[in-house]
Amino acid sequence: MKMLNDESNGRSDEPQHRIIILQKPKITTFCGNDDSKGSSLIAWKYEMDTLLREGMYTELDVEIAPKKSLCGGASDVVRRMGVHANLGTIMYKLSCIYGVVEDSDCIFKQFYGATQ
Description:
Layout: H1 41-54, H2 59-69, H3 72-81, H4 87-98, H5 104-113
C-alpha cells in the first residue's frame, strides 16, 4: 500500500502547484420589455444571484458580466447610470423598471401612508 507522500515516488519534495483557468461568466441576455431576444428579468436575476453565491469569479468579472449581458432598453438604463454603478444598484433599478408591479391595493396603501 502506497501513501501519497511516500518518498519512493521521487516527487515528495517538489512543491505542488495547481493552475486553475476560469472562463469569464456567461449570462443570458436581458433586453427589458423585448422578451423575444433574451430571458425574463426573473431568470436574469436568478443567474446573477447564483453567480454571486458561487464565488468562483473575481469581483471585476462579476461587475462586468451583467453589464455585457444587457441589451435594448435595459442596456440604455444601465448606461445612463454611469460606469461606476455597482451590481446591487443595477439590479434594483432594473427591478423597479421591469419587475413585477405591485397590486393596486398595495400601491394605494403606500400612497396614503406616505409622509413628507
